[in-house]
Design a protein that fits this description.
Elements: H1 13-22, H2 28-38, H3 40-46, H4 50-66, H5 71-77, H6 88-105, H7 111-131, H8 140-148, H9 153-181, H10 193-210, H11 212-225, H12 234-254
Helix pairs in contact: 1-2, 2-12, 3-12, 4-6, 4-7, 4-8, 4-9, 4-12, 6-7, 7-9, 9-10, 9-11, 11-12
Length: about 260
């Protein structure tokens, strides 16, 4: 899957404000909102990452491919190297490999691209896994049918929301991780690693709540983009990602993202 190279908080006024919040009793919503504002440029540039856009495009293609009887052949056409009877884990590994190949093609491996790769694979394994009739050795055809369930607007919107929620969560954690470790101990923001873990869980929930707007947006987009038998092109996925990140930034900066 590759290695995520965690960095320290950028030395900007907005990030210094985030650090200051960590030394107070500021709410999670305030900290996440300030973090999203400080990470504005990173989140703005996210959709321009070729690997990220390709990862999302592949997610738009898998459900459509699963509707075909020649599923494995279509996966090969998409760059996923699988057998004639792939398991869900096989497809997850092949998806990671296809995204890796895109990074090599554009000669640009970024931390954000690796975040997108992990998010895409986790989204497929998690959501499709829930649709399988059994966790014990489901057949290749059962896997195909489970993936095909996401080929309609309502179900695809769930998949899109999960993907972008994971990216937002990992992107904020990417910057915060090192700094948060400096605030564990007596008299600090987190008295123990358990408190830190609770914060991480709350951050995950907050990003999940903020991604609700992606679900609403994705449903209409997917229906229109894939309507009348038209194939969703890579540039369609890239345009969606641009709008999706703009909407996510706005929600995250609001602080209170609402219900899950």
């Amino acid at each position: 899957m590759g290695h995520i190279r965690l960095g320290v908080l950028p030395r900007t006024r907005k990030w210094r404000a985030v650090v200051k919040l960590l030394t107070t009793d500021a709410s999670l919503a305030d900290i996440v909102g300030a973090s999203a504002e400080a990470a504005e440029s990173s989140l703005t540039n996210a959709a321009a990452d070729d690997t990220l856009s390709h990862a999302f495009w592949l997610l738009t293609q898998l459900p459509q491919a699963a509707r075909l009887e020649n599923f494995s052949e279509r996966l090969w056409e998409l760059g996923l190297s699988v057998s004639d009877t792939p398991s869900l884990l096989d497809i997850g590994a092949a998806l990671a490999g296809a995204i890796d190949a895109k990074s090599a093609e554009v000669h640009r491996r970024t931390d954000l691209g690796e975040i997108a790769q992990q998010a895409a694979v986790e989204t497929i394994l998690s959501l499709v896994g829930r649709e399988l009739p059994s966790l014990f050795s489901p057949t290749s055809d059962e896997v195909r049918k489970a993936i095909a369930k996401f080929a309609n607007s309502a179900s695809f919107s769930v998949l899109a929301r999960d993907f972008f929620s994971r990216i937002a969560r990992r992107s904020l954690a990417y910057y915060l991780s090192r700094e948060l470790s400096n605030h564990i101990g007596p008299g600090e923001r987190f008295t123990s690693s358990a408190d830190r873990a609770e914060f991480d869980s709350a951050l995950d929930l907050h990003c999940r709540q903020a991604s609700r707007i992606i679900k609403e947006f994705a449903s209409g987009w997917y229906g229109k983009a894939s309507g009348e038998g038209r194939q969703i092109a890579p540039w369609d996925a890239s345009k969606f990602a641009h709008v999706a990140f703009r909407k996510m930034r706005q929600e995250l900066r609001r602080g209170d993202a609402g219900d899950a």
